[in-house]
Amino acid sequence: MSTFKAPKGTYDLTPPDSAKYLAVREALSAPLKNSGYGYIETPGFEDVALFSRGVGESTDIVSKEMYTLTTKGGSELALRPEGTASVLRAALEANLHKLGNLPVKLWYSGSYYRYERPQKGRYRHFSQVGAEAIGAEDPALDAELIILADQAYRTLGLQNFRILLNSLGDKECRPIYRDALQEFLRELDLDDDTRRRIDLNPLRVLDDKRPEVQKQLVGAPVLRDYLCDACKAYHEEVRDLLTAAGVVYEDDEKLVRGLDYYTRTTFEFVHDGLGSQSAVGGGGRYDGLSEMIGGPALPSVGWALGVDRTVLALEAEGIELELPSSTSVFAVPLGEEARRVLFAKVTELRRVGVAADFAFGGRGLKGAMKSANRSGARFTVVAGERDLAEGVVQLKDMESGEQQAVALDALVAEVRQKLA
Ligand code: HAM
Predict the structure, then answer these.
(1) What is the dihedral of CA 272, 273, 274, 280, to 10 degrees?
(2) Is 232 in contact with 174 (CB distance < 8 Å)?
(3) Which partner for 387 in 96, 379, 383, 403 could form a disulfide, CB atoms 3.0-4.6 Å apart?
């Protein structure tokens, strides 16, 4: 222990568990790499206004949860609370929408920061893998993203998750619904905070989990009844494409999501083993966001999957990922001369691409063999003075326990052959 600890609401990834996180990131992004999405990386912080305009002043994310700072030069920055606004900003800045065919399909992976009340599955620093398809209004694109997320979770072995699907309408029909909802909500018996929300973000009131609020919401107008014909047809097409792909979803007309930029398709992946923080991923269409941040009209759709919560979901389902050992050969020298010889062999193995490690620190045979075991290496190479005098090393197969003398010169070839 040092004097310091990881800040509240954060945790470190350390071996061996950290390997699981890498494997999850890999699995979540693999379907994207395979479907025409190119990798994008943006800074960990942005101009505050990008998020207040993009994500929305009235959202919890912007009004309560952003880590903001003023730089010595006077710039107002925020640690990124999410990826969509940043990715769209970067795509516009690089003119990606003008360079090639639309949609521009991008994927990303990184750290995000929200000043939330920490609990299981809710952290102040967390990690997401995300995808954004920018510049096309095509229900097949919405369906593609949902199908790829479903595939990603399934390749990890997850089963107990559900896909919730909704349409939030567009700039034609949503305002009409919003008016009707506000009128309904104003008649209810609500606390001051919730009353304020009626003006700022009435759809969020529907998301209020308190029973005394939920009770009063029975009979509230539902967006589905207000969708314009274009939104209805679009949504039907998304649903049909998902069904044709064999992806099972649930219609959830209460699904609003915590970010203001959404239009039409919205969805969430919820896992039933996670308690209250059950959303392992979510996303939707954001046809107006580009214009909100000063760009041209670029209808787009995307999602972000939470890496931390996906790991928790794996644990909830008792799934152990098969993680190949990172070390194939572990070298244990006995004596000074052996140290130099085996160190050179380890270097040689690494140069030809064999994962190899070495007993550092000059400990005795027992300690070194413990390290070899812990490394998970398939083979251990041991050599002492007598071996070297005969020009051999002892190669031990840690799986079968068999040990054989191998000529020093033949070691690298022998190991490569055995591993192949
Ligand atoms: P979001 O729903 O805010 O959407 O976050 C996506 C996922 O990130 C959540 O489902 C959850 O798994 C994870 N997550 C969010 N907050 C936390 C937290 N405090 N601790 C742990 N995990 C968390 C977005 O961020 C949108 N940018 C998604 C999107 C992309 N929409 C369109 N394109």
Answers:
(1) -60
(2) no
(3) 383
CA of 133 to the centre of ligand 1 (A): 17
Cis peptide before 16 (omega within 30 of 0): yes
Report pTM. Answer: 0.94
DSSP state letter for 247: -
**Best mutation site among 82, 89, 113, 132 for ligand 1, i.e. most ligand atoms within 8 A of its Cβ?**
82
| Pairing between β-strand 104-113 and β-strand 125-134 as defined by DSSP bridges | antiparallel
Does ligand 1 have an atom closer than 6 angstroms to the CB of 135?
A: no
**Mean predicted confidence (pLDDT) in 203-217:** 88
Is residue 254's pLDDT more than 90?
A: no
Size of the chain in residues: 420
Show the domains of the chain with their CATH numbers. 17-173+227-316 (3.30.930.10), 329-419 (3.40.50.800)
Among residues 92, 135, 78, 129, which one has the least CA distance to residue 300? 135
131 CA from centroid of ligand 1 (Å): 12
